[in-house]
Amino acid sequence: MKIDGCVVLYRPTEENIANILRYAPLLRTLYVLDNSEIPDRTVTHPLCAEVNISYVWMGGNRGIAAALRRGLEFAMREGADFCLTMDQDSAFPVERMGEIERWLSMPDIDDYGIIALNYEQSGGAGLVVVPTWITSGNFVNVRNYRLIAGFREELFIDSVDHELCHQFYCIGKKVAYIADIPMQHALGNMSYVSLFGRKFSLTNHSPLRYYYRFRNNYVLYREDKAFYRGLYRADRHQLIKIMLFEKNRREKWRMIRRGIRDAKRGVLGKYAP
After folding, report:
1. pLDDT at position 21
2. Cα(62)–Cα(207) distance, rounded to whole angstroms?
3. Looking at residue 94, what DSSP letter applies?
4. Are 135 and 68 in contact (CB under 8 A)?
5. Whole-number Å distance between alpha carbons of 56 and 151
């Protein structure tokens, strides 16, 4: 089985690089796509010293979708069976790779577009089929990826993962995660507040990040209301939490409104002030 991987960098730290070097030996080739405006060669140099790592500077911030698309293109060209997609700060469970490979060897593996790891760490066992999942920790079935359009570059960042899962859904391929193999992954700058005896989680993203989230999700919901209904409801709940609890609410609300306005006008890609 030929398993490649791709990880997207953006202003990485030495800790990020050390994290990547821990799981790189598990893969045939790891494609490192650097979206930094100006790459820091002193930080990324250890990657270039590894024989199975291919480092590519994207020429600036082209967005996570463009970088992941490039990584999958490399994997397809080199005949990979699966391609692991990772964020730079996600910690891969290297000691579980043998179990993961057994899941990837299932007789019905071609029924799946993605076999993912459990970032929620909610317990359970076996495969859990879901409509969508996050990008990091995904083993993309390259044979099935060839059947779809691939990562949608004009989304730039945010909901790129949901949209890819939708493409697999449209061709009848499943997305599932391995419940008992967790992966450490950070979702935003999480904090928690309590109100009336209930605990609420806050992602505390920047105004720009919320621009992309609400813009892209508005576009996707209009394309397939049934599939993205859960995403739409999550955004409504998120908006309430932003306005009630998060800091810099006025600027976040301004960027959310701008995002929805751009979505209605068909303006995608990188944010243009």
Report:
1. 98
2. 19
3. G
4. yes
5. 18
Would you kindly state where each structural domain of the chain is located, as residue ranges?
3-182, 191-265
pLDDT band at 125 (very low <50, low <70, confident <90, very high): confident
pLDDT at 62 over 70: yes
State the CB neighbour count (10 A cutoff) for residue 111: 14
Place of tokens 């810099």: 248
Query: Which tokens sit at 72?
Result: 């999958």
Task: Write out pLDDT tens, residues 232-248.
Answer: 999 999 998 898 888 99
* Residue carrying the six token digits 């960042």: 157
**What does the pLDDT look like over 14-44, one tens digit per residue?**
999 999 999 999 999 999 999 999 999 999 9
Cα 194 versus chain centre, distance = 29
Q: What is the pLDDT of residue 190?
A: 58
Tracing tokens 């577009």 back to the chain, one arrives at 113
How high is the pLDDT of residue 184?
82
Element (H, E) at 140: strand 138-141
The half-sphere exposure of 247 on its side-chain side, counting CA atoms within 13 A, is 6
Q: What's the confidence (pLDDT) of residue 204?
A: 79
Helices (H), 156-206: 160-170
Q: Which CATH superfamily is domain 3-182 in?
A: Spore Coat Polysaccharide Biosynthesis Protein SpsA; Chain A (3.90.550.10)
The residues, ordered by sequence, that sit 6+ positions from 62 with a Cβ below 8 Å of its Cβ are 35, 153
Furthest CA-CA distance within the chain: 56
For the sheet with 138-141, list strands across it.
53-57, 30-34, 3-9, 82-87, 138-141, 112-118, 174-182, 127-130
Q: Which band of pLDDT confidence, cut at 50, 70 and 90, is reported for residue 170?
A: very high
Sequence-distant (6+) residues with CB within 8 A of 214 are: 235, 239, 256, 259, 260, 263
